[in-house]
Amino acid sequence: MNHDPALPVTPRTTNDTRLLSMINASGDCFWEVDVERRFVYISDNMALMMGYPATEVVGRSVQDFMTPEYKLQIHRQTIERGAPIHQHGAIRHEGEFICKDGSGKWGDTVSVPVFDDDGVHIGYFGITRDITQRKKDEHALREANRLLRGQVQRINQLHEQLREQAIRDDLTGVYNRRHFVAVAEREIARSRRQQQPLSLVMLDVDFFKRVNDVHGHLAGDEALRVIGLLLRSTSRAEDLACRLGGEEFAVLLPGMDHHGAIERAQEWRSALASLKTRIGGGTELSLTASFGVATFPQHAGSVTELMRAADQRLYHAKDSGRNRVVGALDE
Ligand SMILES: Nc1nc2c(ncn2[C@@H]2O[C@H](COP(=O)(O)OP(=O)(O)OP(=O)(O)O)[C@@H](O)[C@H]2O)c(=O)[nH]1
């Protein structure tokens, strides 16, 4: 059936007119289109929203006023439903209209197919709510969220950096004494619970004063960095290498018995002794260190006792000629 586009899809009754004025008063827009989806009627609010006089809209296709994204969305919605859209009753969609001045207006639309008395589909009518402000607010909120997420991420990074700085030794990159003691306390408690051994290797560079005196303090710093790197790169994930201060280092070895810890200390001793550290103007430097090894629970019941026992053995190693490892077996 051909519908005269000049006439509304549905004839107006008094009730229709009342309903229309109610919709107008609510601020929502009312419209009617024929089967080809050409406007046959738009309410005052719809004309206002789109910035067109009704006379410039009536007779034109709805599609002329929709953004390509909106058209695509309706197309997809129709395909997903798998049958002509008028067979589905009311449908709801959100999309952007193009106004006369080229700006966009967002509408939340409910459209309903209309049939004549013989059941022939003659078009659609619908109500569109202007949701442009809501869309702008949503966009602003998303943008604010995005910025906030970026800032939170940055704060977390800085927090992590600060945490690292607080627990690391600046010069060598191994952990500092405070962190070492805190972790050692936890590890000893765990070893006690799990009835596992825990060993401590302490080392002190031999004649380090001479390195500073002969090659300068910066060369001494470089040598300490090399030792830090050696300990870090040759430790297991569960080990904890730290600089106790000056030229003294320690490595905590959770789960390792005394024999195993002495072997590890020997490996570090010979690795250091055979390492040629290039300093300053290219001078090659050879370093040695003395080592003391102690193990929980055989030699100590606390972190303090463990450190004292390892320290005593370290000085025993110094006294007996340096560049050596002293453990309980040597006592
Ligand atoms: N370059 C540099 N030197 C340091 C640092 N901390 C401590 N020292 C130096 O390390 C040297 C330690 O000297 P001593 O305690 O006499 O011991 P040593 O010369 O290693 O002799 P032994 O331990 O007996 O083998 C001192 O000269 C300190 O100034 C540091 O961060 N950088």
UniProtKB/TrEMBL annotation:
It catalyses: 2 GTP = 3',3'-c-di-GMP + 2 diphosphate. Residues 15-69 form the PAS domain. Its EC number is 2.7.7.65. GO terms for molecular function: diguanylate cyclase activity. Residues 196-330 form the GGDEF domain. SMART domains: GGDEF (SM00267), PAC (SM00086), PAS (SM00091). Pfam families: GGDEF (PF00990), PAS_4 (PF08448). It comes from the Bacteria. Keywords: Nucleotidyltransferase, Transferase. Residues 91-143 form the PAC domain. PANTHER family: DIGUANYLATE CYCLASE DGCM-RELATED (PTHR45138:SF9), REGULATORY COMPONENTS OF SENSORY TRANSDUCTION SYSTEM (PTHR45138). This is diguanylate cyclase. It comes from Roseateles agri.
